[in-house]
Amino acid sequence: MPLAIASLPRRRAAGRRGRKSFLILLPVLACLAFLAFGGFVLSKLTEDARAVEAAQTSAVAATFASAVERVVSRALTATRSLAVMVYQGNGKVDNFERLALFLLPMYKGAYALSLAPGGIIRQIEPLDRNLLVRDHDVLEGVDRDKVIAAINPDHPVIEFSGPFQLIQGPVGAIGMLPIFLPDAQGASRFWGYTVVTLLLPDALEDANLDAMSLQGYAYELAGMDPEAGHRRVIARSDAPVAQPVCEGVHIEGVSWTLCVSPLQAVSAWSRHLFELILIGVCSVGMGGLVHALIVLKRTGRELEWSALHDALTGLPNRRYIYERLDTLLFPATPATSLAAVAYLDLDGFKPINDALGHAQGDVVLRIVAQRLTRAVRECDVVARIGGDEFVIVMRDLEGEAQCGGVLQRVLKAVGEPIALTERSVAVSASIGVTFVSAAAPADVQSLMRAADEAMYQAKASGKNRMHIAGT
């Protein structure tokens, strides 16, 4: 019994030592938990910051890739202008030299215009720098009969090729439009090609790729050289791209790649302060943890918003429209409902941007975005898809007349004078619109292309007006 009693103090002392060890261990465990959670939070914050940066870079790449597509496609329409001359002359073009020299300045970067009856270049202007190409067979090295037989004479399309080193010396690309004329029996016969030769990167001037450098991005535009069989750089910034986001540039069946990267990417510098930041997290305790969770949630919302909205105007962007157009047009409406997609391009914006600078040009774009939003109905969606181009999605229309009324308000609102720092300026809008119903839906690409083509018809008709696709 005395032995048992004597052992009690020792057991109690051991218990106190155990509790003391636990009390010492508990803060350590809590600190270790905070350290582990802090590491997770920092990792997520860095990951989310990079994701936001990648989303913004992707939006920039998509905008300028679209600009390159539009600029090159417009230059290729020179072949259609030449085709009109061929059709009018029933295969003969008098005064080709004078007509070609008149057309050349209308297409930036056009190095030469030529006619190739039977596939042989017989007429080319300007001749002095293109003499080597005269009498060149554009179908050399291919099965001529097979190539011609594969062309649909009722719907000939432009054949595009490039980039490659031209026979004349510089790097460029060519577009060829096959021409078919009726023979004595009224059947279509292959006449040859109208050809436009583009000088690269001069033909991309209106795409304003250097604006990416001013916005803090490096870029590189490249495509596969069909002659040499390797990748050829078409245009690049002075600074090299690093870990870029790449966007496809698709022109008449040929694909180029535009790669863009930030000049100052999100770095891992915060990792060098890892211990100090984690000590701060441990010191503020749960308050710091709650704050970190709030930041994580907010960053996620910012990431989603940045990926789907234009940073300058706050409007939905090109990706938003392409991913959600079907839902925007027909959310839950009857099959008989009518909807419309309007493609809007500002007239006179580029001279203002060039004369007053990009900062004032950005002010104009923001004001126009606000006016568009106020001019449309509450259920309509206004988006900026790049440069000075906007899209308006209208649903639940009672008829085409209601759409016309909304777009007339848009034209009036855009045309109002805009007061800038230096002076007052004015722009107008050319609008192309295409209609669609739930009973006969169309894919996004077709709707956007139809509205875009209608917009160019509005520009060709004198600008500051709207044109309905198919009329």
TrEMBL record:
Residues 337-471 form the GGDEF domain. GO terms for molecular function: catalytic activity. The keyword Transmembrane applies. Keywords: Membrane, Transmembrane, Transmembrane helix. The chain crosses the membrane at residues 21-42, 273-296. The keyword Glycoprotein does not apply. Residues 120-213 form the CHASE domain. CDD domains: GGDEF. PROSITE patterns: CHASE, GGDEF. NCBIfam families: GGDEF. This is Diguanylate cyclase (GGDEF)-like protein. It comes from Pigmentiphaga litoralis.
